[in-house]
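Sequence only, no structure available. Ideas?
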Amino acid sequence: MEIPFFPTLFSTVRSLVVRQPFFPTLEDWLVNHPKILGFSWNNGQTPASSQRFLALTVLCYISFTFILSQVSRPSLARPVLKSISALHNLFLVTLSFIMALGCLVSIFSQVPNFRTLVCFPKRTSPSGPLFFWGYIFYLSKIIEFMDTLLIILGNSMKRLSFLHVYHHSMVVIMSYVCVNSAQSSFSMVLVTNCTVHVVMYAYYLMCALGVRPKWKKMVTDFQLVQFWSSFLIMAMLAFYHFTGSGCSGILSWCFNAVFIVSLLFLFSDFHAKNYSPKVKNA
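Reply:
I predicted one. C-alpha cells follow.
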C-alpha cells in the first residue's frame, strides 16, 4: 500500500531540485566528499558512540546544571557574556543551516523514493551521507549544552526551567538512538529540527547583539509545528511498517514517539502560559 500525495510531491520536488545547475556542486561538497560518503557508525569505535559516553555525558550535564544553579558563581562582565553568547549562537546558526542543507541534499541524492525516505529497509546499517549528518546532528546536541551554561552565567534563572533541562538532555539521547539503531525517517526530522534551530539561534544571536526581534513567539510556534510534523512522519512510518515488510529502527521509533509526545505537551503548556490572551492582558 502507498500513502497518497506525498510520494508524488517528493518525486516532483526531487526531480526539480536535482536538475538545478547548483546541485552537482552541493552534492560534491555535502554528499560525495570521501569523509561523508564513506562514513560508518561503529558502536564504541566511532568517537562519542558508546553507551557509556552517552550516559556519562547526560549525567554530567544534569549534575553540573544542578550544582551550578545552586552555588555562588563568578560573574562575567556583561559585554564578555554577550560576546560569548553571540559567537555561540552564530556558530549554531551556521551549523544548523549546514546540517539541514547537507541532509536535504543527501536525501535528494541518495534516496530514490518517498517510501525509502520514511521507511528504511530492515537491517539498514548506519553508514553513508544520511547517517553522517545524523552523527553531526547528535554531536551538535552536546554542543547545545552551552545554552544552559550561558543562562547560568547570565543569572537568567527564570529561563532555566524543567522544560529546558529535560529537552536538552533527552534530545541527545534521542539523536544517539536514531543513529545507533538506523531509525527510519530520522533524516526528515533532522531537516525540520535544524531549520527551526536556524530561526531560533538567529533570534538569540540578534538578542546578544542588542537587537530584540518582535518574533519571539514565532520561535515557539515553529517548534510546535515541528513536533506536529514529527507526529505525521512517525504515523507514516508506522503505516509503511505494518503494511509492508517492516522498517529499520522501529523500537527506537517507539522511544522517540513517547519523547515527542512529552515535548509537545511541555511546549504547548509553555506557549499557553506565555502567549495566551490572558497573559498579554495581565
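Residues 6-281 form one domain.
Hope that gets you unstuck.
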